Amino acid sequence: MRDSKPESRDHEADQWSRYSAEARKRQDMFMSEAQQVTAARPAQKAVAQRDYRCATAESSGSPLFP
Fold it and tell me: How far apart are CA 27 and CA 20, in angstroms?
C-alpha cells in the first residue's frame, strides 16, 4: 500500500503542474488582451472626441470642421 502513495503524489503533482501551466497560459492571454485594450484607449478617445466635434459642428451649422 505504501508503494502506491508516492505514485499518487507524483500523479497529483503532475496534475497540479498541468493545471498551473494552463492557468498561467490563460492569465498571460488575458493580460495581453487587457494590455491591448488599455493601449488602445487613448486612440479611441481621440477618435470619439473628433467625431463629437464633427457632429456638433455639423448640427450647429458651423462652417469649420476640425
Answer: 10
Give the predicted TM-score (pTM) of the model.
0.34
Distance CA 53, CA 26 (A): 40
Single-letter residue type at 16? W
d(CA 15, CA 65): 62
Q: What single DSSP character describes residue 65?
A: -
Q: DSSP letter string over 22-57?
A: HHHHHHHHHHHHHHHHHHHHHHHHHHHHHHHHHHHH
Per-residue pLDDT tens over the stretch 17-66 = 777 888 888 777 776 777 777 777 888 888 888 888 888 776 666 665 55
